[in-house]
TrEMBL record:
It comes from Mangrovibacterium diazotrophicum. Keywords: Membrane, Transmembrane, Transmembrane helix. It comes from the Bacteria. One of its GO terms (molecular function) is sigma factor antagonist activity. This is FecR family protein. The chain crosses the membrane at residues 86-107. Residues 125-214 form the FecR protein domain. The lineage of its organism: Bacteria, Pseudomonadati, Bacteroidota, Bacteroidia, Marinilabiliales. Residues 262-326 form the Protein FecR C-terminal domain.
């Protein structure tokens, strides 16, 4: 009995070596003796698809074994003996792939077999809104990327941000939400806040709108300093530092990229132009540098950039010249 089991183990080992290592003539001859040619063809194709799913990081172990069970149950009513044996072998191929090809994916993710996705806002003019598996909502700014799992099965709900995003996190004290952004780790239980982590800025900044968040450098030990932010506060971690600097947020327009709403109170035209350039991705210039010292007090709620420029021109007696699709020049009448 033990000899038969050893022979079976050797056959499966030979199959795994043939599928996932370089096949040899000796190995191929052994397979031909142990396996039916049609079954081998089907198993090879299944293994190829399994490998493709792993390469694309789209594999879901739970779904795969569910489909195998369904297929086995359906097949059992048609060809009881041979078909069940065949699907058992297919299940074993998937198991082999999980062990040989999937161990690295499992070990690299702290959420187990969660499929990883990358969503980027791309190069268009629209922002991207993502609803995560727990119901949390993330709004991404232009040129930003969020990496996140299909399901949050681990101790933490973890995502990675490159760029800028506004987070509205569903409360779950038993499974804290953690954002990895550059050098910063941002942990929350349930809140809404903005994270700006564009690499070119040289820093990671967090502004809290509601709730509480905890920010720390991922280069610190577990006992390192962690800064807690409450609504209205801002935390900044410079790339060349390990200490988060906390202050009151004085930028009332920190969410303008998301809302397209602005509030200016005796704001210099230079600062107004900088914000409009960033939010609308346009280039606004002045014909005379002295114009940048003009002040503007106004509020705009989700208005197009042309409308805002018309108000500026009317307020200060200027004229607008559109030199290109996304380029504007402000000059004196």
């Amino acid at each position: 009995m033990e000899t038969n089991r050893n022979n079976t183990d050797e056959k499966w080992a030979a199959l795994a070596k043939h599928l996932f290592d370089e096949p040899t003539a000796e190995n191929s001859e052994s397979l031909a003796a142990d396996w039916d040619e049609d079954e081998l063809k089907d198993i090879r194709e299944t293994a190829r698809q399994v490998d493709l799913y792993f390469q694309q990081k789209r594999f879901s172990a739970k779904e795969a074994f569910t489909k195998i069970d369904v297929a086995r149950n359906q097949a059992a009513t048609l060809k009881p003996k041979k078909t069940i044996q065949f699907w058992s072998r297919i299940a074993a191929v998937v198991a082999i792939a999980l062990f040989l090809g999937g161990a690295g994916y499992w070990m690299s993710g702290r959420n187990g077999f969660n499929t990883q996705k990358e969503i980027a806002s791309g190069q268009n003019a629209d922002i991207t809104e993502i609803v995560l598996a727990d119901g949390s909502v993330v709004t991404l700014n232009y040129g930003s990327t969020l990496t996140y799992p299909d399901e949050f099965n681990g101790k933490y709900r973890e995502v990675t941000l490159d760029g800028e995003g506004f987070f509205e996190v569903q409360p779950n004290p038993e499974q804290p939400f953690i954002i990895h952004a550059g050098k910063a780790d941002i942990q929350v239980l349930g809140t809404s806040f903005n994270v700006n982590a564009y690499p070119q800025n040289g820093e990671v900044s967090v502004v809290v709108q509601t709730g509480r968040v905890r920010v720390s450098s991922n280069e610190l030990t577990e006992t390192g300093e962690k800064v807690v932010l409450i609504p209205g506060e801002k935390g900044v971690l410079a790339l060349n530092d390990q200490v988060v600097q906390k202050s009151q947020n004085t930028d009332v327009n920190f969410l303008s990229w998301k809302t397209h709403s602005f509030s200016f109170n005796k704001t210099s035209l230079k600062d107004v132009i900088q914000q409009l350039d960033k939010v609308y991705r346009v280039q606004i210039s002045t014909a005379d540098p002295d114009l940048e010292r003009l002040l503007l007090t106004a509020r705009f709620d989700d208005r197009p950039v042309r409308f805002i420029l018309e108000v500026i021109a009317m307020t200060h007696g200027l004229e607008i010249q559109q030199t290109n699709e996304n380029e504007y020049l402000l000059q004196k009448n």
